């Protein structure tokens, strides 16, 4: 289990020395006591409850847990897609709850990349046009060197003129990842990115996500149900009932399967000493 200091103020405290670009100690996003409640009264659901964490530059984090445990909600709150009920979320130097809708839209556009299970490519555009679309829409210039490094990192150099229907599922997902990376997001959020792919193709996509973290210093957060997929990450967060119940450093697939097994593992129930219901990790000390 990781037990790093929790430095969310690094994002806001002008007294701290600024980390240099590419510094892997740099915290690019964090949450403090993040709680998200849907509904009220009898229909109230605490989808995420008191989660604190920090994400460092170049880290590859997987979020796992049973269906309904709060994985997607946590990701949406970290990405500014969902407003939180209480606590604080920092992304790209901003505290998200202090932003109005327009500012939040800009932060999402400039600081966050998304990859979904269903690729979401435009069928009439070539791979290159799809990759460049977010920058085109934002009226921003494409940096040719960065474009080349992203395309090369994802092995798409000879597929740029193809339309999505002329690409395999794995290639389409790699185009979606390239599209997300081209804007140089602080965090790339991937929601079940291999869910629609066969296992060999999924492994290929995961290798490219890993490569993006290692070689491009890209911070990646991936929600997945698949222990094999999560074993590509260098950190795995386990959610149960809206709580962060474990924080694992480069776990193996076997270790994850054991933990996720309701008969032997920490989920679906929150783990705590003598059943006191306390979370297994010090949520304020995770990083
Ligand atoms: N918009 C919403 N309105 C009301 N309840 C919601 C909403 N979104 C999620 N929930 C509830 O919040 C809880 C957490 O949902 P969430 O989708 O984050 O879980 P998950 O772990 O991502 O699940 P899955 O693996 O099935 O995608 C669930 O009980 C869900 O029903």
TrEMBL record:
Identify one Gene Ontology CC term for this UniProt entry: membrane protein complex
Q: Which SUPFAM superfamilies match?
A: P-loop containing nucleoside triphosphate hydrolases
Q: Where is this region: Disordered?
A: 1-24, 260-287
- CDD domains the record matches: ABC_MJ0796_LolCDE_FtsE (cd03255)
Q: Where is the ABC transporter domain?
A: 29-266
PROSITE patterns attached here?
A: ABC_TRANSPORTER_1, ABC_TRANSPORTER_2
Protein origin, superkingdom: Bacteria
Keyword ATP-binding belongs to the record: yes
Matching entries from PANTHER family are given as: ABC TRANSPORTER RELATED, IMPORT ATP-BINDING PROTEIN
Name recorded for this polypeptide: Putative ABC transport system ATP-binding protein
């Amino acid at each position: 289990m990781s037990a790093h200091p929790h430095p969310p103020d690094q994002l806001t405290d002008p007294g701290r020395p600024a980390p240099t670009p590419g510094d892997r100690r740099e915290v690019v996003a964090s949450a403090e006591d993040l709680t998200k409640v849907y509904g009220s009264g009898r229909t109230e659901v605490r989808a995420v409850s008191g989660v604190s964490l920090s994400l460092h530059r170049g880290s590859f984090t997987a979020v796992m847990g049973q269906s309904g445990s709060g994985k997607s909600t946590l990701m949406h709150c970290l990405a500014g897609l969902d407003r939180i009920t209480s606590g604080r979320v920092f992304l790209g130097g901003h505290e998200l709850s202090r932003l109005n809708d327009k500012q939040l839209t800009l932060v999402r556009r400039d600081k966050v990349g998304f990859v979904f299970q269903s690729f979401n490519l435009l069928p009439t555009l070539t791979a290159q046009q799809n990759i460049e679309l977010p920058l085109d829409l934002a009226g921003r210039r494409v940096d040719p060197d960065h474009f080349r490094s992203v395309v090369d990192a994802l092995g798409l150099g000879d597929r740029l003129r193809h339309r999505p229907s002329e690409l395999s599922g794995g290639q389409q997902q790699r185009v979606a990842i390239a599209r997300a990376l081209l804007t140089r997001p602080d965090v790339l959020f991937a929601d079940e990115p291999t869910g629609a792919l066969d296992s060999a193709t999924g492994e290929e996509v995961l290798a490219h996500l890993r490569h993006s973290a290692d070689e491009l210093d890209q911070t990646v957060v991936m929600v997945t149900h698949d222990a094999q997929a999560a074993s590509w990450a260098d950190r795995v967060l386990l959610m149960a009932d809206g709580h962060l119940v474990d924080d694992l450093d480069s776990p193996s697939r076997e270790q994850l399967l054991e933990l996720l097994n309701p008969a032997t593992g920490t989920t679906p129930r929150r783990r705590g000493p003598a059943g006191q219901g306390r979370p297994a990790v010090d949520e304020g000390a995770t990083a």
